[in-house]
Amino acid sequence: MRIVIPGGTGQVGTVLNRALSAAGHEVVVLTRRPGAPGEVYWDGRTPGPWADVIDGSDVVINLAGRSVNCRYTPANLRAMMDSRVLSARVVGEVIGAAARPPRVWLQMSTATVYAHRFDAPHDEATGVIGGAEPGVPGYWSHSVDIAKAWEREQEEAATGRTRKVALRSAMVMSPDRGGVFDVLSWLARVGLGGPVGGGAQYVSWIHDHDFVRAVEFLVDRDDLTGPVNLAAPEPLPQRAFMRDLREVWRMPVGLPATRWMAEVGAFALRSDTELLLKSRRVVPGRLLEAGFGFAYPRWPEAAGDLARRRREGRRGASSAPH
Ligand SMILES: NC(=O)c1ccc[n+]([C@@H]2O[C@H](COP(=O)([O-])OP(=O)(O)OC[C@H]3O[C@@H](n4cnc5c(N)ncnc54)[C@H](OP(=O)(O)O)[C@@H]3O)[C@@H](O)[C@H]2O)c1
Fold first, then answer.
1. pLDDT confidence tier of residue 272, bands split at 50, 70 and 90
2. Where would you tag: which of 16, 135, 193, 291 has the fewest CB atoms within 10 A of its CB?
């Protein structure tokens, strides 16, 4: 298949490109700074010659969006919103105008669209969309607003012949340098991988191989449309999540961090505490119902596999599924 990945130069794009290319597909990445083979220029907001790559393709997976790992200044929030909404809009326009449109358009979204919650997990049918939950900082609604606007662009796009799926993905854990697993592992290894703000907040995650397998599953299954949660079935409290991570790195100590320490740390790392403190308890209702089997449903085994690959410097090969 020809698979086009707008915004495919980042962490998730690297994971997908590696796996889909290895499976024999032709992968084309749309980027604002093409350089490598298989990369084509686009600006993420206006149609251009890149539309020819989409016309006649089989699958489009749009990942474009300014990183959310930043301070939530007004300028950054605007860039987070615009980069997602405008890129989804133009991808929809180009697919809608194509003579030979792709069979399916997978549009990245995020598990952050759901409310901060401890008591029960969110699946697609019963989950509560965030933005109005009590007891959380008011500005946390920004990321939910961005996710909703992002999904709306895809929903409203007039792409009659193309199936549309929104990927409500949890954090994708891969052993690549600079990815979220790498950063959390570094914290664990220097003794800072303890509970943050009490550590009761849930962490949703997905192992990189399961992320790729879920994408392949959604490409194949013509009956699935709309939002789909991409998260391992067993999210766990941050305290336990970091304890398991410390264990795989054999680090006995993990200093706890209070909320204000997290504020200072996030400021120093030019990030925002919402990423650490929001409880994301998200489960893959539709994937499980459709018969998808996770190779890494539990965090201890997933973390063990990722740490082993990180140590060995091997990115692709996982140990046998559990
Ligand atoms: N990583 C995760 O675990 C995770 C989980 C859930 C959802 N997501 C979402 O999935 C997407 C991909 O995640 P990622 O971790 O791979 O992100 P990333 O490493 O930050 O890469 C995102 C890509 O978006 C492109 N981009 C950035 N600003 C843009 C703009 N203004 N206009 C057009 N393109 C722009 C960049 O491509 P160029 O600079 O090459 O143009 C970049 O490669 C993001 O939207 C993210 O919010 C990620």
1. confident
2. 135
